[in-house]
UniProtKB/TrEMBL annotation:
Signal peptide (UniProt feature, chain positions): none
UniProt keyword terms in alphabetical order: DNA-binding, Transcription, Transcription regulation
Transmembrane regions: none
Species for this entry: Streptomyces subrutilus
GO molecular function annotations of the record: DNA-binding transcription factor activity; sequence-specific DNA binding
Domain of life of the source: Bacteria
HTH araC/xylS-type domain ranges (all copies): 178-275
Name under which the protein is recorded: AraC family transcriptional regulator
């Protein structure tokens, strides 16, 4: 259960431990905060330690309480919010695709790109191990943190993973969606309208919207906001000031970046950048 102080307020720490490359860590307690539909470049392995988290996934809504582990594959669109009035607390690991593939190769039981086959599992021991990764990293114990991290990833892969499923979209629709994504990534600061984008790709707006939603789990404008935040994160990681990052990725000003960044990442860009700078110091 959450402590008295944690149960009264929202707090979050999103950071990197330099001794664990290829990993982001988030430990937080949210009450009113809601995550809009978004996706991650890498994987999500989250241990709910208090309250209930409600996750909206392509297959439906999942409610995760203490002792459960939430597993989300790269590029899977999802939402998150509190499932009870007191909110939820969790410890989350965001391992990169390279890190997960490295562990999968060491296990030697998975072929192809590994993907989780369950959205949530009841695994009290695994949940505790995820929290222990955080504690070891926060204590600066690199040997323990790395050992525990690889153990957690191996545990989840060996128990709840298989090859990532192939896309079921028609080849032409899949190609249109992926070409649309490439255009939006290339022209992030000045994107075309849906009608203009469809015309450039030689399809109709409705057909493109349907293909894009099926491929990426969200419409193009929602995906673009998420992509802008992801690119802003990379810029902040490199030391770019938030105001400059906002303009570079296509937000009209820093307050717009602040609002969308905080909703999607879970912490404001200033706090995110300070944690990155502290980790490099």
């Amino acid at each position: 259960m959450m402590g008295t102080d944690e149960g009264r307020r929202e707090w979050a720490r999103h950071w990197q431990y330099p001794e664990l490359p290829g990993l982001d860590l988030l430990r937080a307690h949210y009450v009113r905060h809601t995550f809009p539909r978004h996706a991650h470049d890498g994987y999500v392995i989250a241990a709910v330690t208090g309250g209930v988290e409600e996750i909206g996934l392509p297959g439906g809504t999942v409610r995760a309480g203490p002792g459960s582990v939430v597993l989300i594959n790269p590029e899977v669109a999802h939402t998150a919010r509190a499932g009870v009035p007191e909110g939820w607390a969790y410890a989350t690991l965001y391992p990169s695709g390279d890190l997960v593939s490295e562990v999968a190769a060491e296990i030697g039981t998975l072929r192809g790109t590994p993907g989780f086959t369950a959205d949530m599992v009841a695994d009290a021991q695994g949940s505790r191990a995820i929290a222990e990764v955080h504690r070891a990293a926060e204590a600066g114990n690199a040997l323990a943190a790395d050992t525990l991290l690889r153990g957690v990833v191996a545990r989840m892969l060996s128990r709840h993973a298989g090859p990532l499923p192939a896309r079921t979209l028609r080849r032409a629709a899949l190609a249109d969606a992926e070409r649309a994504r490439a255009v939006l990534e290339d022209r992030m600061a000045g994107p075309p309208s849906l009608e203009q984008l469809a015309a450039e790709l030689g399809t109709s707006p409705f057909a493109l919207l349907r293909a894009f939603r099926e491929r990426y789990g969200m419409p193009p404008h929602t995906w673009l906001t998420d992509a802008r935040v992801r690119r802003a994160r990379r810029l902040l990681d490199a030391g770019t000031p938030p105001a400059e990052a906002a303009v570079t990725v296509g937000f009209s000003d820093q307050p717009h970046l602040n609002r969308h960044f905080t909703r999607i990442v879970g912490v404001p860009p200033g706090a995110y950048r300070r944690e990155r700078a502290a980790g490099r110091a």
